[in-house]
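Figure-free illustration: sequence to structure, shown twice.
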Amino acid sequence: MECLFADKGDLVEVYLLDTGVQSNHREIEGRLFVTDFENVPEEDGTRFHRQASKCDSHGTHLAGVISGRDAGVAKGASVRSLRVLNCQGKGTVSGTLIGLEFVKKTLATQPYSPLIMFLPLAGGYSHILNAACRLMVQMGVVIIAAAGNYKEDACLYSPASEPEVITVGATNAQDQPASMGTLGTNFGRCVDVFAPGDDIIGASSDCSTCFTSQSGTSQAAAHVAGIAAMILSTNPALSASELRQRLIHFSIKNLINEAWLPEDQRMITPNRVAGIPSKLVADEQLYCRSAWSSLSGSSHAAIAIAHCNSNEEMFSCSSVSKNGKRQGEHIEDHGGRKECVAHNKSGGQGTYAIARCCIWPKAGCQINTYTQTAEDTTVRSVSCTKDSHVLTGCSSYSLDQEFSENIRPVLRTESNHGQCIGEADGTLHASCCHAPSLECKVQEYSPVDFTTKVMVTCDDGWTLTGCNAYSHGPNTFGVYSRDNTCIIMSSPQGKTAVAVSICCRRQLLDNGDQSSSYK
């Protein structure tokens, strides 16, 4: 069932931790409440004069972008302001931590849901700030943060680097990464989505009817906070992970020219710009995203580990290396906490692990394993063994032998369970998830001529859960998924590889009966 999306965020409160806010501006008057919280450092310079229009400039503009009457995204959302940045826009980790504690205590005495905490600030990496944000998310709060304006890896900054936080980079009017003088938006695997953040019109603190333009990832994150308020107001029970998946799903893909990004960041930076959904699907829908690890070390035993967030299930695991020297990947289950582990190889320059993280109720995925024996000389396979399980991904690794990419998923038929098939050169894993209401199919692409990049995209309405390559040569750099596309990277000296994807969707009802689980 589909419904038109016209919600204005009326049910949502947004806690804004920033500078002061001019609460009598006509854009936000009546929908903004200034709390009595203030924890800011002294301004630099003995001759600095505090002017209300300067002290409130940033916060007023952001509040207007979120819920302003004329220029706001979620015109019905209410905003509560906490002052953690001084008149020069500077703050401290301790001030932000105390602000988080203030919100926590407020919610203990006055519970409210759905609630968004908006952190339009970025400082150096802070383990304690990330941990505090993670705790707030575990309490049910959605946190949206600016990626930072340093033209660097967002993983170097907090709270942008916290995986449970929704981190937003900035684009300009041409949907390209926003530049700000010699600097610009941060980027990298810690960014979830980009949004407009260049020359954004919003409320000005110069007067109660004034407008001005400002730029930065704060403005971009304010747009996403507004979109999030609209979605949450329609479905207040969504967790932060479920909301993130929807923001990714409704974003516009492949608009960004990746040449702006540093070469080593192009593969791992998401190429998507936030969009407002025109309609929502009321029925259960499968949502998936890719979560990248940091680059492993270059030693023979080096590994990279990727995780999914809370409320997500790991449907598959893949890996890619910088020069093709890797030993594969597998999923480890530590008491329900799964890890996608990728193995570097001697002579390697580091490898990435890529977890495919999905939202599907009670999926309860398990990993079935086939380990090579001395007698194995040909093809081997590992199957899902329960009728209620669907095959969502295949992976393999070999620490003792030459590793080559040669896995094919074969989905269930009337007489056989879904299985992963590969050549006998290591350990083979099948990801089997309890999802009897999903139907899945394999889509693959084999290019006529050799190319270093082979891609296959799931059909409209289907969601990518697993991504594999089938190649008879050892020169495959690896496999990764970007949104709904499975991508294989090979060296120029490699052999032609086949891109193989598992694509799933909620089963369609056919005359009151459910169709077969596989196609």
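We now fold a second protein in the same way, so the two outputs can be compared directly.
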Amino acid sequence: MHTIIYVLASVGLFWGCFVLVVQGLGTYKLLRHYSSIPKKPVSPTLPKDEIPHVTIIRPAKGLEPALYECLASVFYQTYPREKLTIYFCVESKQDPAYPVLCQLVSDFPDFDAKVFVEAEDPYLSGKQGDANNIGPNPKIRNVSRAFREAKGDILWPLDCNIWIAKDVAGRMVDKLCGFEPNGKRSTPFKFVHQLPLVVDTVTSMSHVGDEGQALLSSSSVTGGSGTGDVGVPSSILSRCWTHGGGRLEEMFMATTHAKFYCAINTVGVAPCIVGKSNMFRKSHLDVATDPARNPILAATSAAALPRGIDHFSSYMCEDHVIGDLLWRTRIPGFRNHGLVYGDLAIQPMAGMSVRAYVARRVRWLRARKWTVLSATLVEHGVESLVCCFYLAFGLTTVPWVHDTLGLPQTWSALASCWLLGVTLWMLVDRVVCKRLHAGLSIAVDENTPSFARGASRGGAEKRPFGQWLLAWLGREILALPIWTWAVFLGTGVNWRGRRFRVRSDMTVVAMDENVKIANGRLSEEVSGIRGGKID
């Protein structure tokens, strides 16, 4: 029995040390690259005929917080406008986002910009079209025509709720193509992306009294136009439940996610991407999805899927699948994935409840566990409370540690080590979170909205330590229950008010009624998924 305990303690000690090393690497990269504005991009200064053409594709659905400001950010890029094509995509003209897209095209008439409406796509409707030509994924259906009509080879899918700084296009192209100063070239990448950062734009205010300090107040702002005010209940518990999810998401993206995202992309042992702002080549996508040119598809069911972007229309995590397939596809002369350090893909958020936050995390964990099963199974072990327990258990159980360091092998010593570890972890998270939300790497100008200016420039609200600690504790305490529920207690997810079951191939099946599609057949996938949104 003692042997088993010692083995478990040794494993826990090794795992804890490993996670600390990874966290240390991620923290170092964050503090190094997000403390100052990156260097000016090279590609916009090249001779005109050498500047690659970029097609920016922005799918939209509904009125996201600061929708206009986020979408307009691509028009303020320092990249030559004649080398940019901007396609906005929407499901139908009845979508609330459609007037905003039309307004943007009208406000920036000097750009090559256009709005594509999925309902008018001749490939999916009309005499020559068929709704079943591609799969049910609403995001892929939304952007399919934009990909087909893209100009040039470089594609930049960019979510509608993401704001980017003015030099991002140039630095993304530099990384993808290997452009460096003084005419030098480095090995180009197949796929480049940005670090995402969520900013909860609902203003919190300190209310100190019998009820204590609130996480969120009854006053609110959204940080942008097109959303209106977010109503905040007067009760503290109601405020936390109704809008606390935004703080939890903000905390997750600026601490645990950011550290591991940077660390894994630095080591480059596996693809680690989020579908917010990704850039790649259409020609590479065509090669990767063609079984005649990509041997890894030849003997799989994926060989029967369409080519190009439509290949991913039956998957839930289409962004991850695109990145993973490009990673595994051999294209000589190119490196796999590259993170564009220093630039942030900023997502303003308003009105997310705790329930919505939990559902979002469950949804993506249940989808990811079929793509990276081993990583998902150990993911709970990278969270502070669990990881510090593993480490404390190892330190107070392994005989070598006791003989070398003299640590008592008692429960009280274990509790003390755990508490010390969690405290130090929290302090590191505080430093990382403040650094990212300070906005020191963002080039601010008159077109920068308040939510993107950073706390150091009077933009995003600074989080007092008491409020920040409440959000940090809430996020850490919920991490293990969410992971357990997502991984072991079912395959269903709540997605835009509907229930779906996640298959082992990452596709989703509606768990409610079947719905007839255009040709009269029954399709579980289409029942409800068309009304949803993958974000």
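Summary for the second example: The longest strand covers residues 335-349.
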